[in-house]
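Lab notebook, bench 4. Continuing the backlog of folding jobs that were queued last week. Each job is logged with the same field layout so the records can be merged later without manual cleanup. Today's entry covers Transposase, a 51-residue chain. Filled in by technician R.K.

JOB TYPE: sequence-to-structure
TARGET: Transposase
LENGTH: 51
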Amino acid sequence: MGRTAIRTAQLLMELSWCRPGVEHLARCLGVTERTDQHQLDKLREAGLASS
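JOB STATUS: finished
OUTPUT FIELD FOLLOWS
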């Protein structure tokens, strides 16, 4: 898993009290929404993020 996927997972853990949207996650990480969506898909496939 790459650095962006790990950063996405860390941010999701920090925000576990809510369900942030792809737009918010991408803005916090400084990546495009498409990149963040791709990373979320990878995390879901690995069982590390919920749908």
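OBSERVATION: Residues 3-45 form one domain.
SIGNED: R.K.
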